[in-house]
Structure formats: C-alpha cells, structure tokens
C-alpha cells in the first residue's frame, strides 16, 4: 500500500470513529449538570454526519485512486452531505426556541437563570424551560430547574415568572402557586425547597 493509500485509510478511519465519539460526548454533556458548550456544539447528530461525510470525501482525495472502494466511499459521503444539508435547510421551519429572560444571581455573576420558550411541534402553546448555568467559559454547567407547559385555563398553573429571590434562591411563579429552589453555591445545582399550589410541570 502506498503512503497516500495509508493516509487515506487513516482519514477514512477518522471519518468513521471521530464524529460518533464527539456526538456521544455531546449526549453525555446534555444531561442535567453537563457542560453547556460541549452539549450545544457536539450534540448535533446531523452536523456530525456532515463532518463524517467531509472527512470521507477527504479520504477519497488523499487516497488518490478511483476504484470500487473510492467510489463507494464517495457515494456514502455525498449522501451524508445531502442529508445533513437538507436537515440544516429545514431547521427554520421546525419548532422555534425563544429566550424569554436571562438574569445573573444578585451576588454571583457566574450563576445565571435562563428562561426559554419552546414551541410545540404539534401546534400547542409550547413549554417554558427554566435552567441555571453555573460557571464560565468551557466549564459552564447547565442544570434544569423545571419545565412548565403553557396554555390551558387560568388557575391551572400557567407560567408567570422566574426570578432570583435571593443570592441562592429561585422563585418560579404560576397563576396558581409557586416553587422555590435553592441553588448550591459550589455546583449551581438547584434543589426544590418550597412548593405551594399548582404548576404544569412536565419534569
């Protein structure tokens, strides 16, 4: 095997191994308490498919031979690029996520309360996702506080507000009650400490 053939084999192996590993890391970091940057960047299966396709095409070029192996690899790469590109083009037509508010703790700039509204793909009123991000830069960890369904009738626990009620306390208010979470100062993890009335919680 020529040096170009060996180099092409290495690139092809990278195409098959690196993107799945990166996606797996992103999946793990997407869990509660995971690193936010890694989750946002790596937990994108269609983007990882695109990366694999590009590497596979690069392997064909580096190998420098157009035979059955090169043809099959190129075909898989093109299909992967088409699928990844098609998914990217459809993103604007999918469920939208809108940030509602973002507020740092009164005494901890590295503890941030974030509220986002996620559209329902079936056309309902969607869900409010409330999270705490603790830390800075690549080490920032993201914790789920609560998810609340929107819509319905008044007095059934519809979301009203989420705010800091102290240096380490978060108050989630609905039209029928509230929840208070205490945020661990070391890790940023929120823990439920008070519950009154109704909330349309989905977690």
Topology:
Layout (H helix, E strand, L loop, with lengths): L2 H27 L4 E2 H7 L2 H19 L4 H23 L6 E8 L6 E8 L8 E8 L6 E9 L9 E8 L2 E6 L2 E7 L6 E8 L6
Helix pairs in contact: 1-2, 1-3, 3-4
Structural class: alpha+beta
Query: What's the Cα radius of gyration?
Result: 23 Å
Percent range of helical residues: 25-40%
User: Average pLDDT value?
Assistant: 83
Tally the structural domains.
Answer: 2
Order of helices and strands: HEHHHEEEEEEEE
Oligomer: single chain
Which descriptor suits the 3D outline?
A: elongated
Percentage beta strand: 25-35%
Q: How many distinct beta strands?
A: 9
Descriptive overview:
This protein is α+β, with helices and mostly antiparallel strands and 203 residues long. It has 2 domains: 3-93; 97-197. It has 4 helices and 9 strands; from the N terminus they run αβαααββββββββ. It has a 5-stranded antiparallel beta sheet with strand order 1-5-4-3-2. A hairpin with a 6-residue loop joins β2 (97-104) and β3 (111-118). It is elongated, with a radius of gyration of 23 Å. It starts with a helix and ends in a 6-residue tail after the last strand.
Summarize the structure.
The protein has 203 residues and is of the alpha+beta class.
